[in-house]
């Protein structure tokens, strides 16, 4: 009787899931190959819709055209202006992050930011008075994305706030994002105390005009080129923007110093920008918005052109389905907390900043910034594996934005609804965490993925738009 090879040779194990079993085998020096397998989304209920979308004769050409448009955009910072000028915001109107939401469903940080914006605009004497007006519906608010703009975290933009204006020189497309306030107790995290309002007023009275004059004196700033350099210097473009902030300051500093503004104002502005590692994030967001808007409106394309959260709902928009939002419940991020804060203090995911992942950086470029794990959690191996995994759900690579540790491979770009559904791999997002109670501010930073409902809903809509198949599906 011949002995079984299992008894006469060293075992080699391929494992999917069951991490405890794998650890036990590794402790006994058994080689283990861990396979990151996930079942397709929908558990077989989406087969007909998936077949119909994949069989759409327009699909390959449509996806290729959508990503061609995205990659052709060259985002440049061309101006800094009040939102009332740039976006045409009327007094008493506000923009916010994420898909549409009503006051009764609004999250704590979104409520807090809207209350603070009312006080900042002089429309309410106190946050409490602002809350009453907002509950009565006397201060309308709608998504930034509906106005060619994006906003971080709560994303609230009011007429007197200043915004970065980015443009593509070839197409003339434009996109906007508010100026970054810094971390901690700031409006975008739902804080509205006196120090928050005072900072916003200084940003509108001093910082905004100084940046406007410096940008106009410098001429267009190539934001896309700065992002490319950031990825070579350890930033991933979402929760790590240190080198990008300093490169922007390098370009604008001579023009700030040469201006006729009071030297104390210039010093304050330089100190504020230089001391705020996240300042460049808002420019990255506007660049992402500019790029992804170029990919909209291609019939048959399953390219995701927006991912956004309002603190209650997570929503995506897809090239081939117009401006329709596909939503699911926003998840609470997992990560690291500030001070004595813990998971019970965190609000579900919020903000338009996931536009960075939508355009192929942020969580998709974690391999370029292994130090990011010190801020959002995980480890270096997780950062590397995450970027590699994102190639499985994207349509292309961006040759302008490269990951040095992956042999300068272009970042994974262009989330494909069909690939997300087929693989079960959800986009990885690096994010900050806002306190769930209005007025709290930032409580931490971490990692999150969208709810699967967004992608299954989008797939069903794409199937509705697809030509009918001959015979039974």
TrEMBL record:
Q: Where is the signal peptide?
A: none
**Protein name as it appears in the record:** DUF1116 domain-containing protein
Q: Which Pfam families match?
A: AllG (PF06545)
The record's listing under InterPro entries reads: AllG-like (IPR009499), OXTCase_su_AllG_h-dom (IPR024033)
Q: Which organism is it from?
A: Marinactinospora rubrisoli
């Amino acid at each position: 009787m011949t002995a079984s090879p299992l008894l006469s040779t060293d075992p080699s194990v391929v494992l999917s899931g069951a991490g405890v079993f794998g650890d036990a085998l590794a402790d006994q020096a058994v080689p283990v190959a861990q396979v990151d397998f996930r079942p397709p989304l929908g558990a077989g209920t989406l087969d007909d819709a998936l077949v119909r979308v994949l069989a759409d004769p327009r699909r390959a050409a449509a996806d290729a055209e959508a990503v061609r448009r995205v990659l052709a955009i060259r985002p440049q910072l061309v101006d800094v202006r009040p939102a009332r000028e740039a976006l045409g915001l009327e007094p008493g109107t506000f923009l916010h992050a994420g898909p549409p939401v009503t006051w009764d469903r609004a999250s704590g940080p979104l409520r807090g930011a809207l209350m603070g914006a009312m006080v900042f605009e002089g429309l309410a004497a106190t946050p409490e008075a602002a809350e009453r007006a907002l509950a009565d519906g006397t201060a309308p608010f709608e998504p930034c994305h509906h106005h060619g703009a994006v906003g971080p975290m709560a994303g609230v933009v009011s007429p007197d706030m200043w915004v970065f204006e980015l443009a593509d020189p070839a197409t003339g497309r434009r996109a906007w994002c508010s100026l970054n306030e810094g971390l901690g107790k700031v409006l975008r995290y739902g804080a509205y105390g006196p120090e928050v309002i005072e900072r916003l007023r200084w940003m509108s009275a001093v910082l905004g005009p100084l940046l406007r004059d410096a940008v106009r004196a410098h001429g267009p700033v190539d934001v896309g080129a700065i992002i490319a350099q950031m990825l070579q210097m350890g930033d991933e473009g979402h929760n790590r923007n240190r080198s990008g902030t300093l490169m922007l300051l390098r370009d604008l500093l001579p023009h700030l110093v040469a201006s006729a503004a009071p030297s104390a104002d210039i010093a304050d502005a330089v100190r504020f920008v230089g001391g705020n590692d996240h300042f460049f994030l808002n420019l990255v967001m506007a660049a992402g918005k500019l790029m992804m808007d170029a990919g909209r409106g291609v019939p048959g394309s399953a390219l995701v052109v927006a991912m956004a959260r309002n603190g209650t709902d997570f929503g995506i928009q897809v090239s081939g389905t117009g401006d329709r939002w596909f939503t699911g419940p926003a998840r609470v991020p997992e990560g690291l907390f500030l001070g004595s804060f813990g998971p019970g203090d965190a609000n579900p995911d919020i903000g338009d900043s996931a536009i960075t992942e939508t355009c192929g950086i942020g969580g998709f470029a974690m391999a370029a910034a292994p130090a990011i794990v010190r801020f959002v959690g995980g480890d270096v191996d997780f950062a590397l594996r995450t970027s590699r995994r994102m190639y499985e759900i994207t349509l292309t690579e961006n040759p302008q934005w490269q990951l040095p540790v992956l042999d300068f491979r272009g970042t994974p770009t262009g989330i494909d609804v069909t690939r997300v559904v087929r693989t079960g791999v959800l986009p990885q997002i690096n994010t900050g965490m806002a306190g769930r109670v209005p007025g709290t501010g930032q409580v931490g930073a971490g990692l999150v993925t969208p709810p699967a409902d967004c992608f299954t809903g989008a797939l069903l809509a794409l199937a509705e738009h697809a030509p009918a198949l001959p015979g039974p599906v």
